[in-house]
């Protein structure tokens, strides 16, 4: 029987600290470095990294803690801190081909165990950006619905949805602890969910949001913004979801008609 020994590999590039908040800039630079290394590569000892980046041990540990939490590094007693690879454990997936199907429906169909915690459900004056998306008068009210969504017990994203209160009044009191918001709109209001416009960009986790998603405050998040319209082009609802990128994958499937 042949035994294969794994020899430790060390980071060896010496660089200057990048600009910006100390621990965030150190963490981001370390993230880029470890991404280029094979799994099991060991980080140099703390004093070496502190000297390289010109930071205290507290600042360095805060930076490394973020990479450990995000799955880029692992600490092991007696061995040190070494490189790993964050796994894609579940996906954020909505289907907009032939039908408008929400995340909950699609993930359930794929056999995942979906969890929902309603964080906010209330009627509020429409935010300016939402009024533009929904073509509402600035004095109008909307139902604001904020939900923490999980897959197989692990937090995946925080979903913020806005619906015109005049059009969907019962959304302010309906039970959204499970099931699909899209299915609710079809069932209760015969909503014609025919078209969706999706924009993806990047944000950072605020402290309260970071606690919900189990990431370090300031960590990057994927932001998926969706406006759903009927067949006449009238906007029906607007939402944005803020996702952990280390455990989420956004997939788009586009179907082109015969015209």
TrEMBL record:
Keyword vocabulary terms for this entry: DNA-binding, Transcription, Transcription regulation
Source organism per UniProt: Blastococcus saxobsidens
Membrane-spanning residues: none
Record bears the keyword Transcription regulation: yes
Source organism superkingdom: Bacteria
GO MF terms, alphabetically ordered: DNA binding; DNA-binding transcription factor activity
Residue ranges of every copy of the HTH gntR-type domain listed in the record: 20-86
InterPro entries reported for this sequence: Bact_HTH_transcr_reg (IPR050679), Chorismate_lyase_/UTRA_dom_sf (IPR028978), Tscrpt_reg_HTH_GntR (IPR000524), UTRA (IPR011663), WH-like_DNA-bd_sf (IPR036388), WH_DNA-bd_sf (IPR036390)
A Pfam short name: GntR
First and last residue of the signal peptide: none
Name of the protein described by the UniProt record: GntR family transcriptional regulator
GO biological process, one term: negative regulation of DNA-templated transcription
